[in-house]
Amino acid sequence: MQPDDFGFGTQIRKSPYFNATVRWGAKDFSVYNHMYIPRDFGDPEQNFWNLVNDAILCDVAVERQVEITGPDAARFMQMLTARDLSNMSVGQCKYIIMTNADGGILNDPVLLRLAENRFWISLADSDILLWAQGVAVHSGLDVTIQEPDVSPLQLQGPRSGDIMQALFGDGITDLRYYWLRELELDGIPLVVSRTGWSSELGYELYLQDGSRGDDLWEKIMAAGKPFGLKPGHTSSIRRIEGGMLSYHADADIHTNPYELGLDRLINPDMEADFVGKKALRQIRDQGVRRKQVGIVIETDPLKGPNTTFWPLSKNGQPVGKVTSAVYSPRLKKNIALAMVAIESSALGTAFDVSLSAGNCAAHVVECPFYDPKKQITTS
């Protein structure tokens, strides 16, 4: 299949890796941050096994960057997140939560600090560039906010470290989890971080010159061939096993961090001001009425992830919804994330799930479902 065979229009952007992914077998795409993202390289179960046994390379250029620079960049960046950034070092990354004035989640990106007054917000799927520019208008702070020419790839899986050594030499092995480094690969300018959306050991390579996308993809695939590297897509199976959130599914503007158990990532008592501070204090003090939990759905193996929110009921009364569900071939269970009423969130609580094929049983279990202490990613 050729790139033009997909018949895409010009109003939605293609990544610098688009042609390469088609050459390497991408069969289907969806839209994320107004860009096309590969979602199908064949069997999703095989993609999962490629990830957890060897390594996969994923085009995640849709993780657009919002760059914040200027004399007041650090102060302004703190205004955008409920996470305390006072101890964030240059070269460090942090998973952050961004909320609106009501405490609703707008995005859950990774923040990269490249210099004292230079930050990248590596986005989930929402228009934070426009939000940040809007907040800046009346902030009185001296900042510049733009989208740079930056397009990340994810290299994920247990052999990703070997592949990175083949590309960059032994010096890459001391790059710590959630830290970054500016590097070049045969003249291709990159920022490399020990991060990723897979719950596996992995790296993200942020290309800083879109014209070199094809070169970068091919160089990584060539270096990875001896280590079993395959082209792939972000794995719903593995991310749900790891309890990782997908924005618009497991969280949205009507969800607050306390409902997701993300208390550790926010500090409404810090001295610095940020958008949503007052609301988050109130939510914390009053307590939440619902909570995200992990559940096991007791039915035949699901055929792919859910595409709608499945209602949950208990004793005939609605108590919540399934937000993300999939069959795990490793655990041999249907696993899911669900948002439920707080009184129905205890371990062992039983529900009825309404699927298109009829009702079935489910119950609350520990989450994450696999490697709950994140030893794989931090090793």
Describe the structure.
- With 379 residues, the protein is α+β, with helices and mostly antiparallel strands.
- Among the domains are: 3-64 and 150-239, Gyrase A, domain 2; 289-371, Elongation Factor Tu (Ef-tu), domain 3.
- The protein contains nine helices and 21 strands.
- The protein has helices at residues 18-23, 44-53, 73-79, 128-137, 160-168, 213-224, 236-241, 277-286, 375-378, and strands spanning 28-32, 35-40, 55-59, 65-69, 93-95, 98-99, 105-107, 110-115, 118-122, 144-146, 151-156, 180-185, 188-193, 202-207, 229-232, 290-298, 310-314, 317-328, 333-341, 350-355, 358-365.
- The strands form five sheets. Strands 12-13-14-11-3-15 form a six-stranded mixed beta sheet, with helices on both faces.
- The radius of gyration is 21 Å and the shape is globular.
- The model has no long low-confidence stretch (mean pLDDT 96).
Give the arrangement of secondary structure elements.
Blueprint (H helix, E strand, L loop, with lengths): L17 H6 L4 E5 L2 E6 L3 H10 L1 E5 L5 E5 L3 H7 L13 E3 L2 E2 L5 E3 L2 E6 L2 E5 L5 H10 L6 E3 L4 E6 L3 H9 L11 E6 L2 E6 L8 E6 L5 H12 L4 E4 L3 H6 L35 H10 L3 E9 L11 E5 L2 E12 L4 E9 L8 E6 L2 E8 L9 H4 L1
Parallel strand pairs: 3-15
Antiparallel strand pairs: 1-2, 3-11, 4-9, 4-10, 5-8, 6-7, 8-9, 11-14, 12-13, 13-14, 16-19, 16-21, 17-18, 17-20, 18-19, 20-21
Helix pairs in contact: 5-6
